[in-house]
Amino acid sequence: MKPLGDLGMRSRITILMSGSVVLVTVGFITDWWWLIGIGAWMLIAAGLIEMIYRP
Questions:
Q1: What's the rounded Cα separation, in Å, for the pair 46 and 12?
Q2: Is 14 exposed, middle or buried (0-12, 13-18, 19+ CB in 10 A)?
Q3: Handedness of CA 35, 39, 40, 42 (dihedral sign)
Q4: Reported confidence tier of residue 6, pLDDT bands at 50, 70, 90
Q5: CA distance 21 to 18
Q6: Which is it for the CA torsion 34, 40, 41, 43, positive or negative?
Q7: SS (H, E, C) the chain
Q8: How far apart (Å, rounded) are the C-alpha atoms in residues 27 and 22?
Q9: Which residue in 47, 2, 38 sits closest to 19, CA to CA?
Q10: Residue 42 class from Cβ within 10 Å (0-12 exposed, 13-18 middle, 19+ buried)?
Q11: How far apart are CA 12 and CA 32, in angstroms?
Q12: What are the pLDDT digits (tens) for 12-49?
């Protein structure tokens, strides 16, 4: 059984990745570069958390 903190970290990574997909998609559709940039940084943050926090 995984500790409860692990489930919280997994949900944060999932939320960051889902949010980044939404922001990048909306940014491409509306041609707003700042949304694409925020989505890219969210994806980078999710990747770093995933690499650093290995359960």
A1: 8
A2: exposed
A3: positive
A4: low
A5: 5
A6: positive
A7: CCCHHHHHHHHHHHHHHHHHHHHHHHHHHHCCHHHHHHHHHHHHHHHHHHHHCCC
A8: 8
A9: 38
A10: buried
A11: 25
A12: 999 999 999 999 999 999 999 999 999 999 999 999 99
Q: Residue holding tokens 């999710």?
A: 46
Name the token pair of 19: 């949010």
Question: Tokens standing for 27?
Answer: 């940014």
